[in-house]
Write a structure and sequence with these properties.
The relative contact order is 0.06. The model has no long low-confidence stretch (mean pLDDT 75). This protein is mainly alpha-helical.
């Protein structure tokens, strides 16, 4: 009676996180900051234009 071959896959070593692996996280933080700064800058620009042109609105 033939016996089944047993194939054992090697266990991979645990991943060690170093400073090099943290670089993409810093990039995402930077891109998130750029998005928020751009949104706030556009809002400030629109408000400045509205004040200069004397547009009346419900500001509060």
């Amino acid at each position: 009676m033939p016996k089944a071959a047993r194939i054992i896959s090697p266990i991979s070593a645990p991943r060690i996180y170093t400073e090099n692996t943290a670089v993409p996280a810093k990039r995402s933080d930077t891109s998130e900051f750029i998005g928020v700064a751009l949104f706030a800058g556009i809002g400030l620009f629109v408000s400045l234009v509205a004040v200069i042109l004397g547009i009346q609105g419900a500001w509060f």
